[in-house]
Amino acid sequence: MSKYIITGGNKLEGKLSIRGAKNAILPIMAASILNDDVSIIHNVPRISDVDVMIKILESVGCKVNYESDTLIIDSSTIDSNEIEEHYVRKMRSSIIILGAMIGRLDYTKISHPGGCAIGSRPIDLHLKALKDLGIDIQEENGFIRCFKKELIGNSINFEFPSVGATENTMLAAVKAKGITKIYNAAREPEIEDLQDFLNAMGAKVKGAGTNYIEIEGVDKLHKAEHTVIPDRIAIGSYMIASAITGGRLEVDRVIVSHMEPINDKLKMAGCEIEYINNGLKLIAPKQIKAIDLVRTSPHPGFPTDMQAQLMALMSLSNGTSIFYETIFENRFMHCAELTRMGANIKYITENICMVKGVKKLNNATVTSPDLRGGASLILAALATQGETEVSDIYHVERGYEDIENILKNLGANIVKM
Ligand SMILES: CC(=O)N[C@H]1[C@@H](OP(=O)(O)OP(=O)(O)OC[C@H]2O[C@@H](n3ccc(=O)[nH]c3=O)[C@H](O)[C@@H]2O)O[C@H](CO)[C@@H](O)[C@@H]1O
Ligand SMILES: C=C(OP(=O)(O)O)C(=O)O
């Protein structure tokens, strides 16, 4: 299995352009099933999750062409209604295909995605919403079978603003009869991007980005072209790479409002952040300041997908920070690995921990526990003086395009082996 060897100590400085968001492109690729036509999608990141989603689309009969950063998906050739189990096991978020498949076809079967490293991740909210839209769902032996006679718009009230459940409901409702109202919808920017793509196909969706989304069903969708929004989590991660090494960074193609929950925390840590023409500049603080409380919450709160990376930064702060992970019950697996590098992290409860800043981190041999946990170890390694080995980087490659070369171009000493 591949690993990164990182020799820390260099300041990360320079300019950066980041392609589309993983969490936007995956539901958009799923949505391409709905139009029975061609979808042209630009600014697509080269990450392994996109490769898995391409395989899923091809396995149900779509024709996919991926050149440079443009994906062309032709869903007019769909000839299967079952998603192979091993894809669902490879990528839990493949469950997002469900709403699109049942929006398009009368029957679909998918295996239950189960949990993953960061939590049990049930899909009860997805399935309840699909049932409310008139889908008959039978769960048996780890598989979910969905039968459609007619999709009928309904009012869906989520008890928690789940990102995936909001997206699956939007996908299924686009061609339902009548109006679907989603209350307590997730407000993440990636949901707005999905709305924009659906509307480019002729759907009638409004409200994404707020907690109320309304979808008026249409009979037919058509060919569409779309450019994916930049990846706010990848951008935030590279900002921390620069901040933790005392560097300066310029990022172009940034949607400032998407970055605010992350930038608020980076400013509290002492970073100077300035917005310039569709981009931003970061200057690292001389001394990283402790942030009293980092509490993850749904957008526009601080994203759980940045918690591990911010923890690497706080490991080197001038005081004590409390991290409270409210979204996933098992998203502190990077703590033990950061501790191997000399971080001072103590659990208070299973989802609250206390990070006391130390003067320096040590090089060590560490293992990526999951996607963002792996990113946090890379960030910590950049700030040490010696050689750190980060293994199991397949997790990281799910969501970071070409991280090795991007970090190298900013001055890092990193080699993939
Ligand atoms: C591909 C993608 O976009 N992934 C993102 C998406 O994941 P995902 O869509 O899986 O995250 P959700 O917002 O659904 O999950 C948030 C919480 O709700 C719970 N839940 C969710 C659905 C459900 O039916 N029942 C239930 O209890 C989950 O277990 C979790 O505790 O949003 C997360 C929260 O911002 C991010 O960390 C992920 O990067
Ligand atoms: C948890 C994440 O992704 P996924 O939902 O695809 O597992 C993430 O991007 O940090």
| Overall morphology | globular
CATH-derived topology of the largest domain: UDP-n-acetylglucosamine1-carboxyvinyl-transferase, Chain
Regarding CATH, which class of the largest domain?
Alpha Beta
Give the names of the bound compounds. uridine-diphosphate-N-acetylglucosamine, phosphoenolpyruvate
- What's the end-to-end separation, in Å? 9 Å
Uncertain residue segments: none
Mean pLDDT: 97
DSSP helix fraction? 25-40%
Output the number of helix runs: 14
Structural class: alpha+beta
- Main β sheet profile: 4 strands, mixed
> Whole-number radius of gyration?
21 Å
Number of strands: 23
Tally of distinct domains: 2
- How much β-strand is present in the residues? 25-35%
Strand order of the largest sheet: 21-22-1-23
Assembly state (oligomeric): single chain
Per CATH, the superfamily of the largest domain is Enolpyruvate transferase domain
Which architecture name of the largest domain does CATH use?
Answer: Alpha-beta prism
Function: Cell wall formation. Adds enolpyruvyl to UDP-N-acetylglucosamine.
Binding site for phosphoenolpyruvate: 22-23
InterPro entries: Enolpyruvate_Tfrase_dom, Enolpyruvate_Tfrase_sf, MurA_subfamily, RNA3'P_cycl/enolpyr_Trfase_a/b, UDP_GlcNAc_COvinyl_MurA
Domain Enolpyruvate transferase: 7-407
